[in-house]
Write the structure tokens for this entry.
Amino acid sequence: MGYRVPIACQVAGITYRQLDYWARTNLVNPSIRTARGSGSQRLYSFKDVLVLKIVKRLLDTGISLQNIRLAVESLRDRGVNDLAELTLVSDGTTVYECRSNDEVIDLLAGGQGVFGIAVPGILKELSGTISSFPSERIEEFAEDNVVGLDELAARRKRKSS
């Protein structure tokens, strides 16, 4: 399943300008269908929208777009299940990935103020919210600049077959 730009923006809580800028600067690219010229529409996967929400949360906490770019680069090749195991912790400058409570405790032990973003919570919120919005079947775009199936779409496709 894929989500058009207006849905991705609304669900992620961002503006069209932000999404367009992030796509043009390769921060978060649509993994299902990229835009090609006037009139074509980008199509975002569930994982793409999840990453958009993560970026928005990081921006809201005051982290620079440059440091968010570094964090997103490390998230890019991961599946939804991998992301669901992460807690992102930041000291306001650097973003750290933590997979266990011990890793979070180690960061806190330095005595520096940090804040965390629990990706499982964002994933749960997104799953509940996005289900009420229309999505588009990927098969409709088989010859139309489709990049590939995301993990969730691939599972849904297997279930329906």
User: Anything to note?
Assistant: Residues 141-148 have pLDDT under 50 and may be disordered. The radius of gyration is 16 Å. Residues 34 and 114 are 36 Å apart (CA to CA).
